[in-house]
Amino acid sequence: MNRLAADTWTLTQRDLRHWIAQPTPVVIGLLFPVMTVLMFGFLFGGALSVPGGGNYREFLMPGMFALTMVFGMESTMASVVADAQRGVTDRFRSMPMASSAVLLGRSCADMLNAAAVLVVLVVCGLLVGWRSHGGFLPTLVAFGLLLLLRFALIWVGIYVGLLMRGPEALAAAQILVWPLGFLSSAFVSPETMPGWVGAVAEWNPLSATVAACRGLFGNPGVGASWVAENAVIFAVVWPVVLVAVFVPLSVRRWRGLGV
């Protein structure tokens, strides 16, 4: 266990040093959600209404927090594929280290990145008028649910990245992240969507986290459906299910590389 922890921390530091040496992708990753908030909050927000009434920017911010956790899958997949293309993965596999340490190091580094992105988005949200009205503990729980979603999606990204054979396949996989993000309650309520589309959006794991955060933050637009009323439960169950499925798949795929 001590060896696993030491190897994991070493590989986490490796990824952090890469970000320091090449900060451009990190900066772009931080600026993109800020630009999206400004675009939807100020350009489109006036044309959008919140079911039940309320400020659209307060409706938007929990969706943006969760959406950023989803879009983080793209950087996870890209990092895994880049390591494979450069031969780093093969070198790690030949070294005397815990076999799962590489994957855990990747997940720890991505979690630190997710926390940094959330801090930037919270500051941006406060500047455009968003506030949490739910109190300290519910607010803390909401951010915990956001990071739980990110942790689960990291393992989805790791597994998909390990399956990819090159940049073309990676680009196709990254494109599929967008429907997952936009076919949700992040920007508009599922109640305003056509029947089957709204049902898909309602059961999207992202929507569960969004609805839970809106409720915990005391922001408008939680929704009145059964899923929305039990959003906190689903915001825990969905990530736990994803972790239970994709951690074993990722470890098995890692161990089977080159076989």
Concise overview:
77% of the residues lie in helices and 0% in strands. It is mainly α.
Describe how the helices and strands are arranged.
Elements: H1 2-21, H2 24-44, H3 56-85, H4 88-94, H5 101-128, H6 136-163, H7 167-175, H8 177-182, H9 195-203, H10 205-217, H11 226-229, H12 231-255
Helix pairs in contact: 1-5, 2-3, 2-5, 3-5, 3-6, 3-7, 3-10, 5-6, 6-10, 6-12, 10-12
Keywords:
single chain; 259 residues; mainly alpha; elongated; membrane; ABC2_TM; ABC_2_transport; Nod_factor_ABC_transporter
First-last Cα distance = 27 Å
Number of strands: 0
Calculate Rg over CA atoms: 19 Å
The profile of the biggest β sheet is: none
Number of helices: 12
β-strand amount: under 5%
Helix content: over 70%
Shape: elongated
- Low-confidence runs (pLDDT<50, min 5 residues)? none
| N to C succession of SSEs | HHHHHHHHHHHH
Transmembrane segments: 26-47, 59-82, 103-128, 140-162, 169-188, 231-251
Pfam families: ABC2_membrane
Subcellular location: Cell membrane; Membrane
Family: Belongs to the ABC-2 integral membrane protein family.
Question: What does this 3D model show about the protein?
Answer:
The protein has 259 residues and is mainly α. The protein has one domain. It is 77% helix and 0% strand. The protein has 12 helices and no strands. It starts with a helix and ends with a helix. The model has no long low-confidence stretch (mean pLDDT 85).
